[in-house]
Automatic annotation (TrEMBL):
<dbReference type="Pfam" id="PF25917">
    <property type="entry name" value="BSH_RND"/>
</dbReference>
<protein>
    <submittedName>
        <fullName>Multidrug resistance protein MdtN</fullName>
    </submittedName>
</protein>
<dbReference type="Pfam" id="PF25963">
    <property type="entry name" value="Beta-barrel_AAEA"/>
</dbReference>
<dbReference type="InterPro" id="IPR058634">
    <property type="entry name" value="AaeA-lik-b-barrel"/>
</dbReference>
<feature type="coiled-coil region">
    <location>
        <begin position="211"/>
        <end position="304"/>
    </location>
</feature>
<feature type="region of interest" description="Disordered">
    <location>
        <begin position="29"/>
        <end position="98"/>
    </location>
</feature>
<dbReference type="Pfam" id="PF25876">
    <property type="entry name" value="HH_MFP_RND"/>
</dbReference>
<dbReference type="InterPro" id="IPR058624">
    <property type="entry name" value="MdtA-like_HH"/>
</dbReference>
<feature type="domain" description="Multidrug resistance protein MdtA-like alpha-helical hairpin">
    <location>
        <begin position="213"/>
        <end position="278"/>
    </location>
</feature>
<dbReference type="InterPro" id="IPR058625">
    <property type="entry name" value="MdtA-like_BSH"/>
</dbReference>
<feature type="domain" description="p-hydroxybenzoic acid efflux pump subunit AaeA-like beta-barrel">
    <location>
        <begin position="346"/>
        <end position="436"/>
    </location>
</feature>
<feature type="compositionally biased region" description="Polar residues">
    <location>
        <begin position="50"/>
        <end position="66"/>
    </location>
</feature>
<feature type="compositionally biased region" description="Low complexity">
    <location>
        <begin position="74"/>
        <end position="92"/>
    </location>
</feature>
<dbReference type="InterPro" id="IPR050739">
    <property type="entry name" value="MFP"/>
</dbReference>
<feature type="domain" description="Multidrug resistance protein MdtA-like barrel-sandwich hybrid">
    <location>
        <begin position="146"/>
        <end position="339"/>
    </location>
</feature>
<dbReference type="GO" id="GO:0055085">
    <property type="term" value="P:transmembrane transport"/>
</dbReference>
<keyword id="KW-0175">Coiled coil</keyword>
């Protein structure tokens, strides 16, 4: 068979060309060192190559007497078989090298890392270094705690948990039977005190009349005394001239003394009547004070009666309701709490090292943990005048013992837009993350101005 023509061999169903076969045959002979070794050496080498390739490819290599024949026909067959096997090995070449691919991947990763790092550096230089952020921030509201003012059993509860209420809405009613009786008793006391005042006023009027009567008696007694005195003087002159007896003079003298005594008695009656008026006036004032006290008692009773109806002091949402129908409340007992949504704001505790650029009016971006995809825009409203540790019940005492410096935090109040408050998404106590743009703001701090004045 000519080696320059294409041929087919049924080994795996593949077709080979003579040129490739000759090249493979030459490479096999050069590796085995059988060049110039004669036909037998070439035949043995080809047989070895065939066996090796067959073992690698998992195919059985047929052997026969023709493979070991010394004639030329056998040599040609063996050579052809070896050539086909070698060509099969060449067709099943080893996998391509991965070194170049790994290098390209590394280069791409390095370029991506450099690009990302450059972007982050640019963002920090243009934006990040002006942002002061903290996750120590919470939604806060001025919560109003509702307490009982009076004692009594709960008669009815008008609101449920988490119910929205307006200022003046009825929350709860306490049994008011005892308080209505107290109101009626106070009214009766007022009527009694007023009656006493009226009675004393009448007595004062009578006392004033007695004074007038006593004064009239004084005038009459004085007139009688003057008449008796004139009669005594006349009788004395007559007695001195021996025109009247001594008995007549003595009678005139006795009449004068009697008139003098009557005058003094009348004057004493006037003084007593006036004193009685003063006493009655004092009693009247006491009665009038009793009326005032009774009115005060009535006001208190009516106030206590009004306190049996618990109303919402502010607009908000009822929470933490503790009172139930039939519960016995005492003064100071907790009933519920109202969270006023209108006063909702953010309290962010910034490190003292972050306060340099934070000023009232600065723009703030708020990220609520409950709604991470809905950022909120706010503004810095004010900065606390002291750190949180200063207002604690037990402030730190660093004058004794070992000192460990700890970065302090200062509360910053952040105003939330009205539309966010009315939406009802924010709840007191929620955790938020705030980012303050220190390039904005610049308003004067109200706390600082107040301190200066």
């Amino acid at each position: 068979m000519p080696l320059t023509e294409p041929f087919s061999q049924c080994l795996g169903g593949q077709e080979f060309w003579a040129k490739d076969t000759i090249v493979a045959l030459r490479e096999g002979r050069n590796e085995s060192g059988a060049i110039g070794g004669g036909p037998q050496a070439a035949s043995r080498q080809d047989q070895d190559n065939e066996t090796s390739v067959a073992s690698k490819s998992g195919q059985a290599t047929p052997t026969s007497a023709k493979d070991t024949s010394d004639d030329k026909g056998g040599q040609v067959a063996v050579s052809s078989q070896a050539q086909v096997t070698t060509a099969t090995t060449t067709a099943e070449a080893p996998p391509p090298k991965k070194k170049g691919k790994a290098k390209r991947v590394f280069t791409l990763v390095l370029l991506a890392g450099l690009g990302f790092g450059g972007y982050e550096a640019y963002h920090w230089w243009t934006e990040g270094r002006f942002i002061a952020s903290t996750d120590d921030a919470y939604v806060t509201a001025d919560i109003t705690v509702i307490l009982s003012k009076v004692s009594g059993y709960v008669a009815s509860v008008a609101v449920g948990d988490n119910q929205r209420v307006k200022a003046g809405d009825v929350l709860l009613k306490i049994d008011d039977g005892d308080y209505k009786l107290a109101v009626q008793s106070a009214k009766d006391s007022i009527d009694s005190a007023r009656a006493t005042v009226d009675r004393i006023a009448t007595q004062i009027t009578a006392a004033k009349a007695s004074v007038l009567q006593a004064e009239a008696s004084v005038a009459s007694a004085k007139a009688q005394k003057d008449e008796a005195s004139a009669n005594f003087d006349r009788q004395k002159r007559l007695a001195d001239n021996k025109f009247a007896s001594q008995a007549t003079l003595d009678t005139a003298d006795a009449s004068l003394k009697g008139a003098q005594a009557d005058l003094e008695n009348a004057q004493a009656a006037v003084t007593l009547a006036k004193a009685n008026i003063d006493v009655l006036n004092g009693q009247k004032k006491e009665a009038e004070q009793a009326v005032v006290a009774a009115k005060t008692a009535l006001e208190k009773a009516e106030r206590d009666l009004a306190f049996t109806i618990i109303r919402a002091p502010v607009d908000g949402i009822v929470g933490n309701r503790a009172a139930q129908v039939g519960s016995l409340l005492q003064p100071g007992s907790r009933i519920a709490a109202i969270v006023p949504l209108a006063d909702t704001h953010i309290d962010a505790n910034f490190k003292e090292t972050q306060l340099e650029g934070i000023q009232p009016g600065a723009e703030v971006e708020i990220s609520v943990d409950a709604y991470p995809d809905q950022p909120i825009k706010g503004t810095v409203e004010s900065i606390a005048p002291a750190t949180g540790s200063v207002f604690s019940l037990l402030p730190a005492e660093n004058a004794t013992g070992n000192f460990t410096k700890v970065v302090q935090r200062v509360p910053v109040k952040i105003k939330v837009p009205e539309e966010e408050i009315t939406s009802g998404h924010l709840r007191a106590g929620m955790s938020v993350v705030v980012e303050v743009d220190t390039r904005t703001g610049g308003q004067k701090d109200n706390v600082a101005l107040s301190a200066l004045h």
